[in-house]
Specification:
This protein has 20 helices and eleven strands. It is of the alpha/beta class and 482 residues long. The radius of gyration is 23 Å and the shape is globular. The two termini are 21 Å apart.
């Protein structure tokens, strides 16, 4: 798809104003703008592609309801979540008219100026939907009508958009106990695209997860045997990893407040597991168990080849009253300071030098970029740095990442880009922003004589495509992109 065909989006957006750097950035970006999108980590609903009759619903269901970035900004300015169609336990009336919800969003659109959300939505409106009118409170209903009309056409079915966006591979994120029925359905459908699952066992590894025993019961159903001791727990997880690999999975995903790891003895970990089964585990037990299980996950990755992703540094549901009223994922997750060097040492001392392991680290604590993460990736063969994540997935966040990481880690100890989104239509917008940020950064290096234009062109292709393929051990889909 094209990236510069709207008068409402500058073709030079995200590039610096210096004339020489701008010229180089344009050239570098033009070389990769139409390259396939590698999406090895994300949260798109598998049913969207598996069900040929899937509908995105209304413009509100497509753009507003899945997006906690929108919730958090509007909530910060006093907009009740009920007015966005979200029901809670307070008894307040909930807005069900999607046109009114859309208008509320439009009336507050100025709040998103200069944020990544504004860039992503502008891309969707003006390029994906071809709307040639600026989004304002007065134009909102006309734009709503245009989006709603588009969503009724075959061209805006998820499978058609997958092809239009030039997606080469799309990874979903799936609980360890997921049946993977939609992945199975897609595999036998004859559809030529590639959607693969990602193994996410957090609900099982974190024994302080609400209703943890229920998740263990689901695991027992999946594997067909009783999980009444730690060895059985490990065998069950290994079996589920095998089932995911059989459906094309290349990676696991783990979220943790901190990247704490610890190697427990067999008797210690069995004791913690039995306490969890009796619902008597303490917070300290939970932290130690998760720390041990991260080491176990690394061990399993060494054996089965699944790339291990670790996302650390988000304190979930910081706003307790909001969580109690509306549940999780309402924009109240807040970053915290994170320590990697000591926390990961037990895991890395065991597996950090093993070429069979790839451990991709993500953080919300930028202070760790140059102090810890870049030196760790610049030493341990197993470690790669994931791209700027969540609150840092922005033009300035990407620039800071390049500036703080590359000089120590090198570009080739990073994992390229992944969009990490559940908002399907924002995928090309996010990749486009990354490619523009990379082009601008590289153009600055060329202008300052740090690299020459030939190396910059190679690095540009690596940032856009090859690094993600290599980090996630995905095959190149065409020789021209190798």
């Amino acid at each position: 798809m094209t990236h510069n065909d709207s008068p409402l989006l500058s073709p030079d957006r995200c590039f610096g104003p210096d004339a020489r750097q701008l010229s180089i950035a344009r050239e570098l970006y033009s070389q990769v703008a139409a390259m396939p999108l590698i999406c090895p980590h994300g949260h798109v609903e598998p049913r969207a592609l598996a069900d040929p009759n899937y509908s995105f619903g209304s413009p509100v269901e497509l753009i507003i309801m899945p997006d906690h970035y929108i919730y958090r900004m509007l909530y910060s300015k006093g907009v009740p979540l009920e007015t966005l169609g979200i029901s809670g336990h307070s008894g307040a009336p909930v807005e069900h008219d999607h046109r009114r919800i859309w208008q509320t969003f439009a009336d507050h659109w100025h709040l998103f100026r200069a944020t990544p959300t504004s860039l992503w939505l502008a891309y969707q409106l003006y390029i994906v939907f071809g709307i040639a009118e600026k989004f304002t409170p007065s134009s909102a209903q006309r734009i709503y009508d245009r989006i709603a009309e588009c969503l009724t056409t075959p061209e805006f079915q998820p499978r058609a958009l997958y092809q239009r966006f030039n997606i080469a591979v799309l990874a979903t994120t799936d609980a360890a106990t997921d049946t993977l029925e939609y992945h199975d359905a897609l595999r036998v459908s004859g559809w030529p695209g590639q959607m693969i699952p990602t193994f996410r066992p957090d609900a099982l590894l974190n024994i302080d997860t609400p209703n943890w025993r229920t998740h263990v019961a689901k695991l027992e159903q999946c594997v067909g045997f009783e999980v009444n001791n730690f060895n059985a727990f490990i065998r069950a997880l290994e079996a589920r990893r095998t089932a995911f690999k059989a459906r094309g999975a290349v990676a696991t995903d783990h979220a943790a407040l901190t990247p704490y790891t610890e190697v427990l003895s067999a008797s210690e970990v069995e004791t913690l597991f039995q306490r969890a089964l009796r619902n008597s585990a303490t917070p300290t037990d939970a932290a130690r168990f998760t720390g041990h299980m991260l080491v176990e996950m690394a061990r399993m990755s060494v054996e089965d080849g699944l790339v291990m992703q670790l996302h650390a540094g988000s304190l979930r549901n910081h706003n307790v009253s909001l969580y109690q009223q509306f549940g999780p994922d309402r924009g109240a997750d807040i970053p915290v300071a994170v320590e990697f060097t000591q926390n990961l040492r037990p895991l890395l001392n065991r597996f950090g030098s093993d070429p069979r392991l790839t451990l991709i680290l993500f953080t919300l604590d930028e202070s760790t970029y140059s102090r810890e993460l870049a030196p760790l990736a610049g030493h341990y063969p197993a470690v790669r740095l994931g791209p700027p994540w969540w609150f840092l997935d922005s033009l300035n966040g990407m620039q800071r990442y390049f500036d703080q990481v590359i000089e120590t880690a090198g570009l080739y100890n990073t994992a390229g880009f992944n969009d990490d989104t559940r908002a399907f239509l924002s995928i090309p917008a996010r990749h486009d922003l990354w490619r523009r940020a990379a082009a601008n950064w590289l153009a600055g290096l060329v202008a300052r004589g740090v690299v020459d234009i030939y190396d910059a062109a190679e690095m540009m292709h690596d940032c856009a495509y090859r690094l993600a393929l290599q980090a996630y051990r995905l095959p190149a889909l065409s020789p021209q992109f190798r």
